[in-house]
Amino acid sequence: MWLILSFSINHKIKKMQLSEIPVRGLGLFSDDNSHFWMDNLMNLLQRFPQLEYPHRQDFYMLLFIDDAEGEISIDNQKIRMDNAKVIVIKPRCISSIDINSKAKGKIICFTEDFFSLRYNNNILDQFSFLHDTSKVFIRLSEEEKNKWMYLLEIFFKEFRLHRRESVKVLRSYLNILLFDLECLYDPLGFVVNKSPKQQKIKEFEKLIEKDFKFKKMPAAYADLLNVTPNYLNKICKEVTNYTAGDLIRKRIVIEAQRLIHFTNYSINEIADQLGFENASYFVTFFKRQTNKTPEQFRRLSNQ
C-alpha cells in the first residue's frame, strides 16, 4: 500500500504544474562561468536533481545514451531510453529528465558563445538538427555507437585535464561530433554558405524569437529587415514552404503550448503574457491553429 501511495505522490509531483518555469544556465553544473561542460550520465539526477523537473535552459545539451532506462520530456514530446541514440535539447525548450542512476553514456552542454566567441558568428546555424523545428533525437547504429564511445572518452579526458589550451581542443572535438550528427540527420549533407535569401530568413527567425510577443504582423518584421512585406512573404515560401505569417504563428503556438502544459497560469494570464489584447482573441487564435481550445489542450496534455 505504501509503495503504491509513494508512486502516486511522486508521479503527481513530476506532473505538477509550475507558476514559473525556472531557467537553468551552465552554472547549474559549474561555477567557473564556463561555456562548456560534460560528464558521465551515472547518478546524473542524484547530483543535479533540478533536471528532473520542468525547466528551460539557455544552452544546448547533447545526451549520448549507451545503456539507460527512463524517459526525457522535451516540450510535448517524450523520448524513451531504449536503443543507442543522441538526444538534443535546445535552448528555450521546456524539458525534464527521468533517467536511472546506473545509466551509461555522456552529457555535453555548451552555449552559443562557445563557438561565437571564437568565430565571431554563430556557426551552429549550419547544423540542421539544431534548428527549432528539427526532431530531438538521432538513433545510432552499433558501428556509430562504438565510434561515439571512442571519441567521447578522448573528449572527456581532455575536458578533465583543464589545460590552458583545452578550450580550443574541446571546441574541435565538439565540432567533429556535430558534423557527424549532421551526416546522420541529413545524409545528403548541407551547404555551409547560405544564399542571401536563406540568410534573410535566418535573420527573420531570430527577430521572431526576440519579438513574437509584441510583433505579430509580417510588416513589422519586413520593416526591420529593410524589405517589403510581399518580398518577405515570397522568400519565406521559397525557402521554408511557409508564409511569413505562418512562421510567426507557429512560434506563438509553441510558446502557448508550453505555458498551457507546464504552468498553472490561467488562460487570461497566458493571453496577457503572449501579448494578446484579450483572452477571447487568444482562444480563437489558438483553436484556429491547433483545432483545440487552450483548455482542451491543457486537459489532454495532462492526462
Automatic annotation (TrEMBL):
Residues in HTH araC/xylS-type domain copies: 202-300
Protein's UniProt keywords contain Magnesium: no
Domain of life: Bacteria
PROSITE patterns assigned to the protein according to its UniProt record, in alphabetical order: HTH_ARAC_FAMILY_2 (PS01124)
Transcription keyword on record: yes
Keyword vocabulary terms for this entry: DNA-binding, Transcription, Transcription regulation
Name of the protein described by the UniProt record: Helix-turn-helix domain-containing protein
Protein species of origin: Flavobacterium soyae
